[in-house]
Design goal:
By secondary structure, the protein is α+β, with helices and mostly antiparallel strands. It contains 4 helices and 7 strands, in the order βαββββααβαβ.
């Protein structure tokens, strides 16, 4: 719901953004990533299973050291407005609130929402509304940001 008082309405062409996405990252410790899917009732976009081999971006194979469960808006939301990506993610997570709370109570389970923002011009970063912040707080999820600037190498 967009409030009349908002200074920054949704803008899918967000002029200062080159690219953006967000994801929920769950590091379940000894718990299988497949158990996370079962408890949340949400299909991940990617999982890491400790001990399995995976080819990296350089084509080298490595053995995964930790379990991970990830749900990402990357390639699923066509907008340069981070709020649209957060809305997409939170829409999928809100029905899983009980499962998230149960997982958060388990020893060794760590999770957060991570937002990636590529700046086009070096100023005018992402905007969050109280609605997104409230939804994250209601789900007891911290939010982190990775911010990059055009021309920087992310490697």
């Amino acid at each position: 719901m967009q409030q009349q008082s908002r200074r920054t309405p949704y803008d899918d062409d967000y002029g200062t953004c080159l690219d953006t996405y967000c994801d929920l990252r769950v590091y379940p410790g000894e718990l299988s990533p497949h158990e996370i899917t079962k408890r949340l009732g949400v299909e991940p976009t990617e999982v890491n299973v400790a001990g399995e081999a995976r080819k990296g971006s350089q084509g080298r194979e490595r053995i995964l050291k930790i379990n991970g469960w990830f749900l990402s808006s990357e390639g699923r939301v066509e907008s340069k407005d981070l709020r649209r990506h957060l809305d997409w993610l939170l829409e999928r997570l809100q029905p899983a609130a009980r499962g998230l709370a149960e997982l958060q109570s388990l020893s060794g389970v760590r999770m957060s929402i991570n937002c990636v923002w590529w700046s086009r011009s070096g100023h005018g970063g992402p905007t969050l509304w109280p609605e997104q912040m409230r939804a994250m707080a209601d789900l007891n999820l911290e939010c982190t940001f990775d911010v990059y600037f055009e021309g920087e190498d992310d490697e």
